[in-house]
């Protein structure tokens, strides 16, 4: 039985975008960068260096244009050649610095992502099944994939490059002021102007983009639905109607897209115009200054090289301003992702190992449930005051209608969940005194739905336990009659399992799970028998394998097979979370109660 | 690549005037923009000329402003024309693709994963759109800019033009090579990442097994290995990526140096000394040169990017055509008798043996029965005995072999598909409701018309009216992820109402009451009695209670009819039917014995 999923998980819901920067979150992110802090500082240094080098470049070019052109004297020609070579050398330095910056940033970002993912995986392994019951797996997947990705973007685009942007902006402004404060002021005005324009564009574009996303999601959801429900659509002869609906959704999506085109169509030329206006400002200013000194014989205050330099700076001046709005979004998204990741990492561990776990020896007496109460969520008790003893080497069969609490007993004995009241004893000691791993090593579990991992058949039997050799895997498979069908598979034990074992029959999957259990050779075998129809041939193999598996082993079985209950030392009948009756098969049949009805319904074919 | 053009051409042809006009604006904006750069140079020369007056500069400012303004305006219209057209074509293409999908038969969907189809309908069509929008706009712009600016530069200095611009032609090739390198590495990252996230999901879904067998360590090792590989693959792309940007920027700046250095010997210090027709250059012209170069560099670079866009679009075309080229397996054909306009409801199976496409085992073997119009047939049998297949074949969701399934004495394959399906109301075993309002779901078979009265009537007959009316928005409540969640039994009754609402001649209920208890089922069947009596009905169930009222009952086992007759006779005969009946009685007994919660 799968426990009810509901539960409260509102704190996990995808939050609306909020803060752009949260010092608290940033401080928590730092430990993931700390191991690489030298490289982080190196990247920041490179980022500042490249910005400075960029500012110097046009300066050299300006000098070439103004000082050596035309190269009509040998000195000027020599100077020209010298400076051209200097510039090329300078470009080489910049090339190396840029490459190093880009590579270092990528390395640190990827490496921190690797670590962060590892931390999340580790955390997930400590959380109890209760957590997994109430958290949709898609959400956990998002935490480890895209949320981490967003943080990488934040690091690569945001954190490192922001230094370069600031240095570039400040540097350009300083150079402007140093050259000509009046012109600098004139030009400086255009910066904030463009900033405001870009910001407004972003604000408006954001709502348009949101519309695009929402409508695309609706369109794809409808597409998915229509394909999944294609039988219904065709049976009701509704292809045309569905096409019409799709067309409607598609056209609203197109309209939203067209809105973004319009926004871009306006924004891109605007940026162009503003930057050209600034160039024209420099021209006009140059003309005004030249006019002012005309006839005085003074050198022109603004030379051709200066124009070149200004034009280049204007382009660069606008770039970070234009991207500012973009960065804003990256920051905002990163904060939201970081918050979600930390909520997961902060999730309290509810099934915990004791600080000093008791050593565990092979089972010598038995297992006992003593007045156990349990619920998956607080509303409803699944087990109510259940007491049950299984002596070593005996088989206990659990019987009852669906939802009566049988599978829950199994979940509790393996300590996938902790009981709320009462206790479960292993040789007289509370389960909670042991380390979970040690406890579970004494047990093997076979569930109704056999879960197969991607990998080979052999991998699925030994489950990554490298102590189990290929021979042992095969011996285990032979023992439970799985060998014949495995050896018929292409590749035999090396056959790759497709789509979680969709190509195997239920019976075959059961046999694989038995082999898995045998390979681990546990003290206690816990078995939730499959209810599904299994063909008679495989059924015979399974019954034979079960008999071997259960021989001389402590077994707790949620029974669906006649052969199993007949052989059980004790049968416990559950009804609505309580034990209804107990005894051997014959005793219970004689009593002519609920068991007899269940027996006639479920077991007698 | 040929397929790509064959696919896109008809769409483009439909919008040819938009493209022609768009191309004109692109060329216009390139011309105006180029002219502006030339005028900037002239303005610089004016500033340095001897007869310069401050007032004179305004002429230049106005000219440059006008040119830039005009170029910006043309740029604005070019986007409106070309990009919006690409969005319109995308719209048409999506519609066409969807229409095709909706006509493909269920056997196609048995073979193909929905996720795969959806990715084709989304990403691959997106890829086409990119090829149609920027993929057309950009090359025209590059070509236009290249022609105009090379012409302008040539007029200033043919030598410098030749020396400086010939090397630029390798730019698109360089960019294409690097873009492809990046692309193949990105693909590798994506492929591995999808394996990685699949493995993460597996580790989450299999958490119970992992814990039970104490495999946390192994799990972490496996994930770590994949995580590590993800890191390595990303770094292998980063190595290219880290070089890509700096190479372009360096190449760009080198070009500027080259221009300055090469043209230095032609530069004259005084603009007034330039003799027309000579090779001398003013400093203003030199500046224009650099500006024009800048205008040309980035589009040329973009050309490489466009080439890889086409490449990807060609790959997407192949993926799309794979589906587009499949003709709908079940459709009207030459055999179709168009004179058939309605169906009365008599159904006959003649010795039908059927296997699903691409499977070997027969799902139905030698099945024969005749159901007169207005009568009711019950079909019972264990899971997998072929009951639902019969229902699917009547509605021709799968094609029966010719000469086996007849409606009104005609082979179903000769009845126009829409006539046949319009006359059948079906309730499937797996109920499928759409994320729409309840009323819209019930009126689904009315082909898009939602009639509140009809919805309410049908809901009443299906005994789900009371529960719907308890919902806050009643019939206007939305179902699905963000809407109300109905229980399995409620969903089944809504889909029953959906089948009733279209007032079909033939009503097929395929295990329609599996999710409701026997008492509720009895109540619904009581309500339905009239509806069933008025038409041909097929009731399919694993429960006896559903079918006992039928005029004839057939018992299926392993695809073959093992028993047939009326309820009263079948219960008295030893066999599968009587067995199922006894089990059902026991089940009811256990239900009553268990204490109520």
Layout of helices and strands:
The complex is a heterodimer of chains A (605) and B (597).
Chain A: H1 23-33, H2 37-68, H3 74-126, H4 129-134, H5 137-179, H6 181-228, H7 230-235, H8 239-292, H9 304-346, E1 366-374, E2 383-391, E3 395-400, H10 406-413, E4 421-426, E5 429-430, H11 436-441, E6 443-446, H12 457-462, H13 470-479, H14 483-488, H15 506-520, E7 524-528, H16 536-550, E8 554-558, H17 562-567, E9 570-575, E10 578-583, H18 585-591, H19 594-603
Parallel strand pairs in A: 3-8, 3-9, 6-7, 7-8
Antiparallel strand pairs in A: 1-2, 1-4, 4-5, 9-10
Helix pairs in contact in A: 1-9, 2-3, 2-5, 2-9, 3-5, 5-6, 5-9, 6-8, 6-9, 8-9, 13-15, 15-16
Chain B: H1 2-14, H2 16-48, H3 57-103, H4 106-111, H5 114-132, H6 134-156, H7 158-165, H8 170-205, H9 207-212, H10 216-263, H11 283-324, E1 347-354, E2 364-371, E3 376-380, H12 387-394, E4 405-407, E5 410-411, H13 417-422, E6 424-427, H14 438-442, H15 452-461, H16 465-470, H17 488-501, E7 506-510, H18 518-533, E8 536-541, H19 544-547, E9 552-557, E10 560-565, H20 567-572, H21 576-593
Keywords:
heterodimer, A: 605 residues, alpha/beta, ABC transporter transmembrane region fold, Rossmann fold, four-stranded antiparallel β-sheet, elongated, B: 597 residues, six-stranded mixed β-sheet, 21 helices, 10 strands, 63% helix
What is the annotated CATH architecture of the domain at 2-324 in chain B? Up-down Bundle
Q: How is the largest sheet of chain B built, in terms of strand order?
A: 6-7-8-3-9-10
Instruction: Please identify which CATH superfamily of the largest domain in chain A we are dealing with.
Output: P-loop containing nucleotide triphosphate hydrolases
Radius of gyration of chain B: 37 Å
For this structure, what is the CATH class of the largest domain in chain A?
Answer: Alpha Beta
Kindly report the spatial arrangement of strands forming the biggest sheet of chain A.
6-7-8-3-9-10
- Tally the helices of chain A: 19
Low-confidence stretches of chain B: none
Determine the mean pLDDT of chain B.
81
The name of the CATH topology of the domain at 2-324 in chain B is ABC transporter transmembrane region fold
Which two protein chains have the largest interface (Cβ within 8 Å of the partner's Cβ), and how many residues from each? A-B, 132 and 143 residues
What structural category characterises the helix and strand content of chain B?
alpha/beta
Proportion of beta-strand residues of chain B: 5-15%
